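Data deposition worksheet. Section B asks for the primary sequence of the deposited chain exactly as it was used as input, without tags or linkers unless they were present during the calculation. Section C holds the resulting structure in token form. Section D is free text for depositor observations; keep each observation to a single sentence. Incomplete worksheets are returned to the depositor.
Section A, Depositor: J.P.
Section B:
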Amino acid sequence: MQYPIEIQSSPPTPERAAMERSPLSRLPEDDLSLVVQFVLCSGSLKDLARRYGVSYPTIRGRLDGLIERLRAAVEDRPRDPLAETLAEMVQRGELTATGARKVLEAAKERDQERKQEDQGGS
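Section C:
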């Protein structure tokens, strides 16, 4: 006969509790890996691109996507599907990082104009 074994977990350490509250804890595993590699490359995108075997614009786009997801986590707001789609397009070489930033800026301007129109029309 087998008896259930109850495993008692120890209370979280202050470090673990802080990490669980950290916006980094809300990032996907591949983003966390990119953060680690970025730090190990001393923040050099050129070295990071070389480490991943991709072009500078590709790694720049991937980092831009990570930054957007981290901002969303810090501000406790939902993820931006447009920013994520554009980052994926840059990663696949379908769009330049500069082009993606311009699209995001245009979308933000459009959103601000709509908000102003909504406020003015009420």
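Section D:
Helices lie at 14-21, 29-40, 45-52, 56-74, 81-91, 97-121.
The two ends are 71 Å apart (CA to CA).
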